Protein: Riboflavin synthase
Amino acid sequence: MMRKYGVADTTFSRVDMGSIAIKTINKEDSDAEILRYTVPGIKDLPVAAKKLIEEGCNGVITLGWVGKTMLDKYSYLAASIGLITVQILTSTHVIDVTVHEDEADSEEKLKQIAIDRASKHAKNLVLLVKEGKNALTPYAGKGLRQGYNNAGPID
Amino acid sequence: MMRKYGVADTTFSRVDMGSIAIKTINKEDSDAEILRYTVPGIKDLPVAAKKLIEEGCNGVITLGWVGKTMLDKYSYLAASIGLITVQILTSTHVIDVTVHEDEADSEEKLKQIAIDRASKHAKNLVLLVKEGKNALTPYAGKGLRQGYNNAGPID
Amino acid sequence: MMRKYGVADTTFSRVDMGSIAIKTINKEDSDAEILRYTVPGIKDLPVAAKKLIEEGCNGVITLGWVGKTMLDKYSYLAASIGLITVQILTSTHVIDVTVHEDEADSEEKLKQIAIDRASKHAKNLVLLVKEGKNALTPYAGKGLRQGYNNAGPID
Amino acid sequence: MMRKYGVADTTFSRVDMGSIAIKTINKEDSDAEILRYTVPGIKDLPVAAKKLIEEGCNGVITLGWVGKTMLDKYSYLAASIGLITVQILTSTHVIDVTVHEDEADSEEKLKQIAIDRASKHAKNLVLLVKEGKNALTPYAGKGLRQGYNNAGPID
Amino acid sequence: MMRKYGVADTTFSRVDMGSIAIKTINKEDSDAEILRYTVPGIKDLPVAAKKLIEEGCNGVITLGWVGKTMLDKYSYLAASIGLITVQILTSTHVIDVTVHEDEADSEEKLKQIAIDRASKHAKNLVLLVKEGKNALTPYAGKGLRQGYNNAGPID
Structure:
């Protein structure tokens, strides 16, 4: 059975994480059909995810980019609540990749974070959609990180 | 097919962004029908957007103005959550234009931000309503900004 | 056609804004029927508004009073989200009048703010209920304020 | 007609406010049937209130206790939003009694606040359930406080 | 009658709290059937809980791990609101275990908190699912703590 994935990204982002996610999904799932939805900013992502699910996507990855100010963070909070609401109402995973401009000092480092986070979470999405609720269980409690090196388990 | 757009603005705002949005929509879509809804402040925008969608709008732009205090920011957060909820429940875009009084030192600069942001986001709305989910994809990850100069992509 | 208005107020408030709102509504709309609902505090206002709408109110005004502490502000945020949710679910305006105890140094000034805000917003409610979405459009972008002097438009 | 009241409390609380609420309700309403629901902490109160209402309660009082850290306050915010959502979805009052550990310096004072707040709000609940939306109107704008002395009206 | 429990955990966590919860549930309820769902991080827990309930779970425990930054705390707030929403919509308990990396100075202490909190709350879940709303009433107001020593009741 072909699986349908949604990729929602923004024009606000300074890295084309949507393309990275698409490339990763295609590599991880040879039977993937992918729909892409591009919106202006993070507050537009929840409705994009909702519409992708209504078009039959079995799972969605959203790729957001957030500025440095307190207002940007409030927008992040509102968008996060919205993305969780979409998941609850549709019983479908929407993996939320967010890069914050204050996560790193240099643009180069920001870009590395974005690439690493988008590709690792695209893999997570494929695993959850293809194999279901125990696909990630071997890694439970392992301190995995996206955008950074893994923290690892304690002890 | 004629497309119906909703424009929701406030009496609290110090710039008539509603008129700017209407002018832009008419310029970008010659088949546009536009409904306007004016409310006192940002916390009244979600229900206005909801009602505009119930009257058949295919997409809505809201134009909010936010004061400088912490309480104004909490109101912004509540309104943002509400606008996202409206979108999720109706599967319709509500592009949220907000100008914060502490974004600039001078009134002149504030007004420039308001004009630029309202017109750019009105264009975004028309593109999404007319052409759908891939209309903005050529700009994905391009670091577009509304109210300011574009940040551009990294590299 | 007689119009039905809801007025929801609290025993926490130090000014009887409910009576001010009722007086104003009666003055502005000679065909008004008014239902009043008094609750302990702001977190009880959303359900009061919901119930007033279920009893047939075409619009509701809520009159809240908020203390000075951070906890009071979190309660304000939760109540604001709730009031917006009620509006979204019922497609009915709930105009939210809130006075914060830290808005002014003297009790006299606080009372003036409360009276001005409650009466101005009661007028807004009547206009929206009686005349609909374009009633306030002549004032769009005019920098109107409730509780204070109008800021006015820029330029 | 017998009225059914719900009392939801927590094991986290350091004062048995549930018993105080039950005693007060029985004193204020001789026809009261009372259901009690005890959960670990404040974030479990919304579902307890929802279930009590589903079992036929005409109104619910929840009795929460909140620690001193910022995280405790975020939990308070999430729980408050949840309690308001339950009320909106069921059109039923859920009077929310919360004691914050940083409200007082001594345990004795905290206990006094808890007892005063729980009993006063239990009375409020009975009045709203028995007599409806105008039961508290004589006290509108009177500056009533629970846990502290009344502030009183201005002027 | 066999009872079905859901255990939702994350790969972000640095302690395998899911296994601790499963072990505890099996010890406390010999008729337990347990479904496990592992997701990347806390913002994925609400949909996991929702899906576990849809698969027939009578109650769910979620096991989250939260970083030290303000952004991590906003994610915690969004996830908490989501978990409460799931409970309200399904009328089912989702006991929320969260460990914050800034709760302790050493990894060893963090791990102790995680183990204590996960096992105590797993017991709470079994009690609520097996015996219902009065199972915890003997401990109401007793100042119980998970992850730390009990605070105890005042007086």
Q: What stands out?
A: Chain A has one domain: 4-139. Chain A touches chain E at residues 73, 76-77, 80-81, 83-85, 87-88, 91-96, 100, 121, 124, 128, 133-137, 139-146, 151-155 (CB under 8 Å). DSSP finds four helices and four strands in chain A.
